């Protein structure tokens, strides 16, 4: 298209047609990925000559679609891409469900507006209906408990039996907040290991503190721990610490500090020579930035007892006494990390500290602080897991690691918010209430909204059945005739109790998909005019959502 | 066979406590080893297996204490205060060791090797362990700790807090009703706050008596007196109490002479058909057999 210097406007009915055209193009690429028997979408690479990327994740596909040729349709495509991207960032799953739901609501909505209904009133009633659906889903949710259930949950996300088994075992142990690191492994298999205690990615100040150890780390038993973020500039600052330790028979000293001058370090090393008398290990204070360091010190004190000496508060080591030291059963340090096992602080204080953090986590919607709370909680829970992933090729490894991370996030959400019968069944269960409301609705837009939603809620189940090669209408008829809670297992080709069969969806993901789809479709129905700016080369990445919606 | 864990070692008796013998003599240790806990396999009659907890390790015998193997626990040496063999031990080989400062150790190979499994165990000062009677299917066990009660539902690989109020701890003893699948009753004996009961896996707790005693409930038992009657027994350092109404009222069964210097330091339930008794170890090294009265409670 030739560059233009003036804006171009598109009015109804072309604005709706354009939105639909673009939305359909992107959704038609995503819809085949829904369900346990997905189709693959191949996306040509722009920057190099490698073979097309083969994707079966709606979220990844949405991110790859940068621009489509027809600018009018491009608006629709980018509108859909935007809310799917945000959903993917927030939940890691649910984009294909949201996409087909959006299409069903929007297409029906367009027909009704074209027939004369008021778009604004329809929008308001669609939002009301959406809230009813979310409430029903919340009531329907069951807790996710036990290794088998977690494994089943994982399988519905990643469709990788080996990965699901390991993630099921891992999360049954570490729980929703537990720390999991996904790393590259050797060979092609999957391996997991569990690490006792907690650790941070900061190491010793001097390799001499490790010299002589058989391993690449030093370990102290029953150490006294100085917890600080102090910049220790002179050996004189450390004299009271060592004096207090020696006078109180503390033979193992673990010092946490932000910085040690060469002189201070030399002083410690000189006093470290006779390790039977006094063994000293000094490590860098954990955290990057003042706020993170402050949190880390708070957590260390909760775990080990004692008190923190804080540079910003003007704390000095001159007045140190034995009660100021923390204690642990073991502390270890290597070149790049250090850890604590068996902190000996007051367990009640630790439990209250963790409880406060959990409350803070629940009460914040901002994604970054939530992530920080999750990391801190994961550390304090007494251990962590590492999942090592192997693969035949680099790209397979990358894809499998991404899949593991995404599945882990979904599992966490499901552990927090519960599970629903999968296969689109939970959404089907919300239909009768909407149809009932439609019968008693006073306004024509209200009746239309509930009817649109009731019909749209069948879209995910239809799509799953169709993707697996079944006649969607036959499948829905079979489900209608079955017991409550029964759905259609497309892998086995029969109706089953979905939860009992382990075919479940995360309640949080499902609700987020419903919210994203319906609120976006309702909003799109109110778009009357498209305004094109002069030609631009492409679209920017959507901003990070920043906040997690409380649904 | 009776086994008694003492400060001076482990002793066994084959004649109902009339005479006692050094149970780990074959280890030929130069110094006496304090044994803080002893437990037998639920299939002892068949596998003759018992375990003894000490500072830094767990001893295992598979021939009624004739010979022993020693499994060292990782340094610094943990002090094992309680050992629990899984109710399903013949099949799963699981054994658990509660320690004073290092949480819970778990063995999956009948005590040959051990590892600490403390995920979610926010309080590593563990005094007691109890397993669900349906452990084979529900993998559930509970730990009594300084600040309350923790629960594991995956065979001891991870722990979660229960709602036991922290201010009521430490919890020194735990007992589960033998009919747990029906009444879901878990009882916790505290150091100074009597007995508490939960019927929902620890989600909520109610007082179950002996609050006024102020004495530590060192041991708790559920005694299936008859198919329809379960009696709770609570043992303190100075006496034994019984309740036939789930803790609503308690009877003083056996009071120790308060003028004496001896205290009850250990206890176990000995049920032989209709004859039931409490075996109690005393601080003076003695062992007494306290019959449990048969009259209705």
Structural notes for this entry:
The complex is a heterodimer of chains A (551) and B (297). Chain A has 551 residues and is an alpha/beta fold. Chain A is built from 19 helices and 21 strands. Chain A has helices at residues 14-30, 58-64, 71-91, 95-114, 119-140, 147-158, 161-174, 235-247, 262-270, 290-304, 347-363, 367-380, 394-417, 425-429, 431-439, 444-456, 459-467, 472-481, 507-524; strands at 8-10, 41-43, 53-55, 179-184, 190-196, 198-200, 217-221, 224-228, 231-232, 252-257, 259-260, 279-284, 308-309, 326-334, 338-343, 383-389, 419-421, 486-489, 494-497, 504-506, 530-532. In chain A, the strands form seven sheets. In chain A, strands 6, 7, 8, 10, 12, 13, 14 and 15 form an eight-stranded mixed beta sheet that branches. Chain A has a three-stranded mixed beta sheet with strand order 4-16-5. A two-stranded antiparallel ribbon of chain A has the order 1-21. In chain A, β18 (486-489) and β19 form a beta hairpin. The two termini of chain A are 43 Å apart. Chain B is built from four helices and 26 strands. Chain B has helices spanning 44-47, 89-92, 135-138, 180-183, and strands at residues 2-6, 9-13, 21-22, 35-40, 50-54, 57-61, 69-72, 80-85, 95-99, 104-107, 115-116, 126-131, 141-145, 148-152, 160-161, 171-176, 186-190, 195-198, 206-207, 219-226, 229-235, 239-243, 251-255, 264-272, 275-282, 287-291. In chain B, the strands form seven sheets. Chain B has a four-stranded antiparallel beta sheet with strand order 4-5-6-7, with no helix packed on it. A four-stranded antiparallel beta sheet of chain B has the order 8-9-10-11, with no helix packed on it. The mean pLDDT of chain B is 89. The A-B interface holds A 145-147, 172-175, 178, 194, 196, 221-222, 329-330, 342, 344, 347-348, 350-352, 354, 380-383 and B 75-76, 101-103, 116, 118-125, 145-147, 153-154, 157-158, 160-161, 166-167, 169.
């Amino acid at each position: 298209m030739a560059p233009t210097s003036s804006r171009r406007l598109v009015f109804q009915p072309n604005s709706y047609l354009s939105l639909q055209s673009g939305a359909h193009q992107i959704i038609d690429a995503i819809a085949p990925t829904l369900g346990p028997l997905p189709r693959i979408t191949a996306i040509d690479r722009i920057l190099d000559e490698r073979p097309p990327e083969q994707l079966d994740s709606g979220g990844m596909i949405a991110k790859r679609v940068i621009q489509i040729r027809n600018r009018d349709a491009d608006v629709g495509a980018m509108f859909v891409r935007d809310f799917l991207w945000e959903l993917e960032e927030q939940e890691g799953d649910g984009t294909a469900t949201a996409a087909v739901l959006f299409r069903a609501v929007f297409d029906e909505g367009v027909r009704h507006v074209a027939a004369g209904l008021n778009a604004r009133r329809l929008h308001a009633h669609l939002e009301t209906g959406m809230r009813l659906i979310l409430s029903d889903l919340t009531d329907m949710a069951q807790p996710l408990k036990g290794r088998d259930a977690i494994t089943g949950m994982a399988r519905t996300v990643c469709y990788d039996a080996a990965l699901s088994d390991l993630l099921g075992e891992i999360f049954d142990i570490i729980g929703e907040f537990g720390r999991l690191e996904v790393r590259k492994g050797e060979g092609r298999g999957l391996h997991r290991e569990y690490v006792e205690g907690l650790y941070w990615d900061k190491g010793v100040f001097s390799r001499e503190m490790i010299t002589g150890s058989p391993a690449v780390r030093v370990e102290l038993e029953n150490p006294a721990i100085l917890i600080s973020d102090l910049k220790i500039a002179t050996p004189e600052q450390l004299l009271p610490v060592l004096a207090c330790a020696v006078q109180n028979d503390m033979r193992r000293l673990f010092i946490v500090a932000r910085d040690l001058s060469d002189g201070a370090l030399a002083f410690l090393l000189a006093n470290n020579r006779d390790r039977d008398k006094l063994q000293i290990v000094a490590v860098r204070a954990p955290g990057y930035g003042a706020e993170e360091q402050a949190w880390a010190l708070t957590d260390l004190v909760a775990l080990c007892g004692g008190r923190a000496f804080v540079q910003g508060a003007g704390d000095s080591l001159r007045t140190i006494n034995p009660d100021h030291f923390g204690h642990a059963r073991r502390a270890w340090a290597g070149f790049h990390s250090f850890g604590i096992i068996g902190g000996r602080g007051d367990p009640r204080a630790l439990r209250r500290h963790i409880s406060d953090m959990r409350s803070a986590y629940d009460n914040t919607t901002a994604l970054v602080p939530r992530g920080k709370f999750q990391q801190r909680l994961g550390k304090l829970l007494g251990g962590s897991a590492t999942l090592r992933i192997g693969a035949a090729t680099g790209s397979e490894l990358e894809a499998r690691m991404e899949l593991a991370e995404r599945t882990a996030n979904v599992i966490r959400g499901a552990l927090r918010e519960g599970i629903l019968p999968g296969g689109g069944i939970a959404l089907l269960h919300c239909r009768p209430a909407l149809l009932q409301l439609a019968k008693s609705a006073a306004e024509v837009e209200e009746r239309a909204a509930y009817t649109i939603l009731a019909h749209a809620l069948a879209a995910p189940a239809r799509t799953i059945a169709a993707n697996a090669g079944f006649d969607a209408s036959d499948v829905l008829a079979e489900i209608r005739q079955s017991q409550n809670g029964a759905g259609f297992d497309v892998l086995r080709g029969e109706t089953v109790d979905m939860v009992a069969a382990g075919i479940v969806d995360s309640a949080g993901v499902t609700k987020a998909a419903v919210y994203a789809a319906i609120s976006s479709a309702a909003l799109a129905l109110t778009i009357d005019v498209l305004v094109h700016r002069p030609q631009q080369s492409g679209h920017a990445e959507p901003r990070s959502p920043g906040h997690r919606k409380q649904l | 066979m009776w086994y008694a864990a003492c400060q001076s070692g482990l002793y066994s008796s084959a004649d109902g406590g009339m005479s006692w013998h050094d149970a780990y003599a074959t280890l030929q240790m130069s110094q006496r080893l304090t044994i803080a806990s002893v437990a037998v396999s639920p299939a002892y009659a068949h596998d003759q297996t018992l375990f003894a907890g000490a500072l830094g390790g767990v001893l295992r015998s598979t021939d009624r204490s004739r010979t022993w193997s020693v499994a060292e626990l990782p340094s610094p040496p943990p002090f094992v205060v309680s050992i629990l063999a899984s109710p399903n031990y013949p099949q799963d080989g699981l054994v658990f060791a509660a320690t004073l400062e290092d949480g819970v150790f778990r063995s999956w190979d009948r005590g040959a090797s051990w590892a600490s499994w403390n995920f979610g165990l926010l309080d590593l000062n563990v005094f007691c362990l109890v397993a669900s009677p349906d452990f084979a299917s529900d993998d559930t066990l509970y730990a009594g700790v300084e600040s309350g009660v923790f629960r594991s539902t995956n065979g001891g690989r991870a722990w979660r807090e229960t709602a036991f109020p922290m201010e009521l701890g430490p919890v020194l003893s735990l007992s589960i009703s033998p009919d747990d699948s029906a009444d879901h009753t878990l009882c916790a004996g505290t150091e100074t706050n009597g007995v508490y009961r939960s019927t929902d896996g620890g989600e909520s707790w109610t007082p179950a008596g002996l609050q006024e005693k102020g004495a530590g409930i060192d041991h708790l038992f559920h005694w299936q007196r008859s198919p329809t009657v379960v009696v709770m027994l609570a043992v303190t350092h100075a006496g034994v109490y019984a309740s036939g109404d789930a803790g609503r009222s308690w009877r003083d069964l056996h009071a120790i002479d308060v003028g004496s210097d001896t205290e009850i330091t250990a206890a176990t339930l000995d049920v032989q058909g209709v004859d039931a008794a409490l075996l109690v170890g005393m601080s003076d090294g003695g062992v007494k057999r306290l019959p449990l009265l048969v009259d209705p409670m």
